[in-house]
Amino acid sequence: MIPTVAPAPADADQAGSTTPAAEPARSAGKAAITKFSRHRLFTSPGAVAGLTWLAVLVTASLTAPLWLPFKTEDQDFTAVLSGPTAAHWLGTDELGRDILSRIFAAAAGTLGTSMLTVIVGVGLGTILAMLAAGAGERTEGVISRVTEIMMSLPGTVIILAVIGAVGTNIPVVMAILGILMSAGIYRVILGQAKSLQSQLYVDAAKVDGVGPLRISLRHVLPGLANTIVVQAALIFAVGMLIQAGLAFIGFGPPIPQPSWGGMIQGASQHVYDSPWMMVPTGAVLALTVLSANAIGNALGKAPNAAAPHLPSAAARRQRTKAVAAIAAAAPAPATGDTAPTGTLSVRNLSVGVDSAGAGNGVRLVTDVSFEVQPGTVLGLVGESGCGKTMTALSLLGLLPSGVSVTGGQILWNGMSLAAVADRDMEAVRGREIALISQEPMRALDPMFTVGYQLTATIRRLRGMGRAEARQEAQGLLEKVGIVDAARILKTYPHQISGGMAQRVAIALALSGQPKLLVADEPTTALDVTVQAEILSLLRTLVKDTGMSVVMVTHDLGVVADICDQVAVMYAGQVVENGRTQAVLDHPRHPYTLALLAADPHANHADDMPERLATISGQVPQSKDWPTGCRFAARCQFAGSACMEPVPLLHSGTGEGLVRCVKADQLAVEGMDWLATDVPAARTLQVTPRQNPPTRSSIVEKDPA
């Protein structure tokens, strides 16, 4: 073996070819405007329309004396009960007063007093809920009893009594209304506040000595923001309607001061001889209520609510058109190009983000090809961000919203899954191809018992009766190594351990007797002992049932233990593919070489290096992929030849495939990946003692 070469410097032919040209720096003001424009309030058309309407209404009302064509008390007896005219755009009432002027003159007062109800009701209810959630059961009991008494009081009677005592003082009346509504808001927010108080980060803040007030303001209140906004929008709308109702029955602002409710009451008296009078004021009131609700809906959404994991109905329809285009563009299979039943063949698969139509966005996976024979296990290996999970999810048609297959073929039993509509995919998903997720709680519903979920799945996929399905569910649990299966069927997912939950998730995936199992890092969250048991279970299932497995993992030990073939992925591409033993014993691609050099389990005890190798840098984002070799910027062997696109080709006389122009040269010369040198500052000199170590210095271990 020749001496290991040092990392290649970034020479002139390499610089500037692996990274795109830097974009011009944006000014701080423009960046702030861009960030503000992307706020969820401005991404909802309804919220934008509602915000525009309220802004126009408030501005027009506050500036009414400057532009209104008539004063609110001016009467035109020549145009009584008239419809829209050039002089009176919205017509006149029974006294000849201009409806447009009266509507906008009353808007500011109506909106202002409704906002007073929101401030009092939502503010008081939130404060009481946070106090009750953080102060203990005794304080919560007292506050809850008081709010229950408030909720039992007849609100209408109390408001009328207040009007009788203080007169038609609308701000006071609306403040009293806010106090009465705060009891209901308190009940809504209390449950969520108590849930937030029990979170681990709140316990950590208490351990750090943070006071109750600061915990409530810094940790609990932000979690209540969505609920508070929704309740505020609801109370704002209710306040306007109640205020209009009070004015309708004669408890509004004193005459001749205009109010929306009073105008609606006057219009109701002429609904037969002048029905138009009801339209302007009623439409303005309805639009204002709808605007408040639209703004509340937009602000009340969680930040990720606009991007659910599974696509919406509209996205599925667009995806159907996209897969139809893929099916039309896919080449017809050659004569004799038929695979045995149960063979998965992925050919030049590409997955991308949808932008202005499917397939026009950033590519996440490009030209991925591999084949899985019946009864074999394929491992997809690579760092986080290499496209392993996206590739696995595309096999089942479970790509997240906004992501779709943009090219290539996924052949399964003579059918191209990449060109199958979502409705047709339901016949494959679960019955022929099943998924085991990394986190078992994603597959298990905490609201139902394990037995109910297994039984329901078996009945849906196999069409069995209830008793037969329950017996089959118990048999599945026993097959995955659960001894007390009858008891586990009666438990809820949160009552079992992580390893047991993963076994249940595997049993759930086996409910439809699939021929292919897609396992997305099923052992990552488990301890070493349980991990070994799960791998042994999967190995036994493959041997006994003859099904095949696609194993997504970043653990080369798992690959060596269970996989027959391995496909190493980097930056959305397969860089090396072949039989597991050949790839691990004689890696051809520098990335595979680096992964093995950085794995302590891949080195024997007698030749364990003093320091494990590292791979400088990180996986580039999909928008920053270079046109040449995507690993070149991190590769110790990169040169000018790596700046051109590299295809996936056969390597020498081996059966595997590799995407590297220097693969044969590295194999012949036997080069190894060079461990990163330890800086001199990290080397600690020590004085030898009675039993001195063989080395004169101790190298500090990297905490990473």
What's this model, at a glance?
By secondary structure, the protein is α/β, with parallel strands linked by helices. The protein is built from 24 helices and 14 strands. The radius of gyration is 35 Å and the shape is elongated.
Question: What would you note in describing this structure?
Answer:
This protein has helices spanning 28-37, 45-62, 64-67, 99-135, 137-152, 155-166, 170-197, 200-207, 212-220, 225-248, 260-268, 278-300, 313-329, 388-396, 422-425, 450-462, 466-479, 485-488, 498-509, 528-545, 556-562, 580-585, 590-597, 663-669, and strands at residues 344-353, 363-372, 377-381, 403-412, 415-416, 433-436, 516-520, 548-553, 565-570, 573-579, 649-650, 657-658, 683-685, 697-699. The protein is α/β, with parallel strands linked by helices and 704 residues long. The strands form three sheets. The chain has an eight-stranded mixed beta sheet, with helices on both faces. It is elongated. Mean pLDDT is 83; it is low at 1-25 and 678-704.
